[in-house]
Structures are given as structure tokens and as C-alpha cells.
Amino acid sequence: MKLFSKTLIGLALSGMVGTASAGVIKFEAAYGADDANAAAAAFSDSTYNGITETFDDPINSYTITNETYEASGATGDQATWVVGGSAFETSVGTFTMTAPNTASNGNIRNDLLMIEDDTTGEFGRNMAYDSQWLDSNDADQVTWDIIDSNYNALGFFLSDANDQGATLEFLFSNGDSSTLTFKGPATGDGRQPNGNIAYITLFSDVAFTGVNLLFDNGEGNADGWGIDNVSLARVPEPGTLALLGLGLLGLAIGRSRKA
User: H or E segment at 171?
Assistant: First the structure.
């Protein structure tokens, strides 16, 4: 599977999860192209009856709020996009900009999420393959409202997240939550390098009903991310899930070493 070259906005990854919910069994990230690809393959091998959003469908396949196209007369990476909107309703749920960028960095439309491709994308969030992705456009906060279904697992590629600092929170409808914090380098300020790539996975022992992910980049950071190949799927019964939570990481590492 091919990748972006950059990671998403509001994610924090450590492999350590702050959890107030018994429903989440595993919530973690695999960093770097090799481990991210291996984690994506392991997710696919361990789940079934899934759906994947690639953001490559024709524009008219999405329900878009506040739709706009390329800014007239503007130039540069931040002035072009495939299509923009304050919300995108996709096959895996609705992505909404809930708090626009509060830093002054010259963005043409800070109020819009954007579908980008390798001719329009900016600041290293271009993917390493011919495809489109959803870009946060440096938003301070983006919410992904997951479709109500029998799915209890999710996985996606995230690019260029946490080079300025960010968190990802998974929220259940009953108020329980789990927070994933980005794992930083062994030394330094704990942030990922610019242009980083990760694959995020979450497994739960309850179905996703009325749940969402909150990507929180903080105020004034002017930092963005890209997300692609977003998958919702099913995993085995809860007893098997407990074993899966222990074994999936080993499977991903094994694939990476073989590669």
C-alpha cells in the first residue's frame, strides 16, 4: 500500500493511551513509512467487512458544506485545492472544521477543509502516490463524526501531524473517551519531524454508535495534516479482541522487518 508523505493535524501518538472507557482495547500509531505500511497491512489482515474512504471519488459523490473551488487570481500552494468545504460527508462519516486556524500564515481560506492532490498540496503533505487526500488546512480543530454502524475498528494514514503539537481524542456517546498522544523523537521537544507519516489504529469491544474523533491542534500553531485511506471495519468477538490487542503490533513489526 502506498502512502502520503505527511501526517494529520490533531493527533497525538505514544502507544500509551489515556483512557476513561472500557470500550477501547487498542489505540496506537505506527511511525515511518515502513512501519505504517506494515500496520495498515496488519489491520487489513485482522479485520473484515470493512469500508475505506480514499477521497478519490468524483467531487459530486460528497455532500459538501460551503463549497468553493480554486481562489480566483491567487497563486502558490495555499491558494489551490481540488475542492474545499467546511464539512465533507463521506462513506466513513462527516469531517467538519470546528475551529479554523487562528494563526496568521497567509492561507487563502482558513475556514475550509480541502481535498488536495499532488499538484495542489502544500508543505510536504503531498502523498507519495497519485491520489487525493483530505487536508486540515491548518485548522485548530477538526471533528470526524463516525457513521453509526456495527463497526468496531478503524485505521487510517496520517501525515505531518504533531510537528507543532497535537492530540487525538476518541469520544463515545456516553461520555467516555480515550486520548492518543503523539510519540516524539527520543530527544527534543517530543514533536514529530515535519513531513512525518503514521498509521493509526483503534479497536473497541463495542460497536461505534454516535462516536467521533476530535483532532485538536491547539490555538495559534498554523500546523496542518493530511488523512487518507480511512477504514472502518469489524473485528472478532471481545475475547479474541483482547488477544488481538497484544498480537497485532508484533505482526506489524514482523512485516516491517521482513520488508
Answer: strand 167-171
In tens, the pLDDT along 151-165 reads 999 999 988 776 556
| Average pLDDT of the residues in 179-190 | 62
- Give the closest residue to 28 by CA, choosing from 178, 176, 163: 178
Predicted pLDDT at 159: 85
One-letter amino acid at 238 equals P
Residues 6+ apart with CB under 8 A from 195: 5, 6, 7, 124, 125, 159, 160, 163
Inform me whether the pLDDT recorded for 236 exceeds 70.
yes
Higher pLDDT, 244 or 98: 98
Q: Give which of 225, 223, 111 is closest to 160, Cα–Cα.
A: 225
Going by C-alpha positions, the residue among 132, 138, 121 that lies closest to residue 79 is 121
* The C-alpha cell that represents 125 in the structure block: 503533505
CB 26, CB 19: distance < 8 Å: no
Give the length of the chain. Answer: 259
Contacts of 250 by beta carbon, 8 Å cutoff, 6+ apart:
none
Rounded alpha-carbon distances, angstroms, from residue 183 to 5, 89, 251: 18, 30, 20
Instruction: For 36-57, write each residue's pLDDT tens digit.
Output: 999 999 999 999 999 999 998 8
> What residues contact 192, with CB distance under 8 A and at least 6 apart?
7, 31, 161, 162, 163, 182, 183, 184, 185, 198
Cα-Cα-Cα-Cα dihedral sign, residues 8, 11, 16, 21: negative
Query: Cell 485505521 maps to which residue?
Result: 155
Nearest CA among 134, 136, 135, 216 for reference residue 170:
216
